[in-house]
Amino acid sequence: MNAIFPFIIDNLMNIITAAIYGVSLLIIGPSNLSLGVILAMGSYALRFWNPILSIANIFNTFVTSISYLERIFETMDEPLSIQDKEGAYELKNIEGKVSFKNVSFGYEPHKYVIENINFDIEPGMRVAIVGATGAGKTTIVNLLSRFYDLDSGSIEIDGHNIQDVTLKSLRKQMGIMMQDNYIFNTSIKENIRYGSFDVNDEKIYEVTKSLSIDSFINSYEEGYDTIVSNQSGRLSEGQKQLVAMARTLIRDPKILILDEATSSIDTQTEILVQNGLKHIMKGRTSFIIAHRLSTIKDADLIFYMDNKSIEEKGTHESLMALKGKYYNLVNANIE
Question: What does the alpha-carbon distance between residue 323 and residue 60 come to, in Å, rounded to a whole number?
Answer without folding.
Answer: 63
